[in-house]
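#struct-help
A.M.: can someone run this one for me? Single chain, 146 residues.
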Amino acid sequence: MTRAIFIDPARTEKDRPAVGDRKNGFSISPFEIPYEMQVFGESSLDHVLSIRFSYPGGETGTTRSDIPSFGIESDVDIRIRSGRLSGKILEMTFGRPVNADELAQVAGRLKEASTATLSLSTKFNYQMISRILSSWREIIEASDIS
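D.P.: on it. Structure tokens below:
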């Protein structure tokens, strides 16, 4: 099963990663915020095998890497495909189907991984994807209504 899920800009605006204040700070670029997810799963959106993110401007990427557990109890293998130039997450693939609770664990691992990245834009992108996965149930419910 494949399903396209629109990500409401009001949600991402509310969860927008930033450092500093409005006058002397930095925040995530609009080009680092996904507007849609392609969710690939077995039978429902609670058995997810992979998620592909779409961004304004598009981007290709072949860089693949694994996300470590960072001490978070999880048996889910996470492999990401990153943008060639930006480092943003284009796709996440899981070693087995994951449910909404396990996506919350994945979100925690991404949040931890964001502290280890060198680029501020990549850090913000990891934090944004983490926040989207943390709100998985709400995003799915909103997509079912529309």
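A.M.: thanks! Residues 2-145 form one domain.
D.P.: also worth noting: The mean pLDDT is 81.
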